[in-house]
Amino acid sequence: MRRSWSHEGFRLDPSKAGPADVLVTHSGPTWIGPGCASPLVQAYARAEGAFGNSSLIADLMEERRQHDQLFRLVKPRTWYLGHFHQRAEKQNAGCRTRILDCGELIRHSVA
User: Fold this and answer.
1) pTM confidence score
2) Ordered DSSP codes for the chain
3) What is the pLDDT of residue 65?
């Protein structure tokens, strides 16, 4: 049986993106989180390949490029995401970006 995740992918609709102070997404841009060459991502790619999906790496890179475009459209001051399940923070173009770790809860406050 071949599994397909095509119906679950992120598809950016620029007409629905507008300026916002805070952005909350599942995945994120190319400039934060592990790259597609990380051991974890490569292990998932091998597992997906066993089910006949050899496009996982390309799919992930396209999703992250769409998040880069979303960033340019929204221009948030703060961005939260959780897809990578590891705590990380990074500043980029005036935006404080934070990856939430598993089970981590944080309260957003405007400073």
Assistant:
1) 0.77
2) -----GGGS----GGG----SEEEESS--TTSS--TTSHHHHHHHHHHHHTT---HHHHHHHHHHHHHHHHHHH--SEEEE-TT-S-EEEEETTEEEEEPPTT--------
3) 94
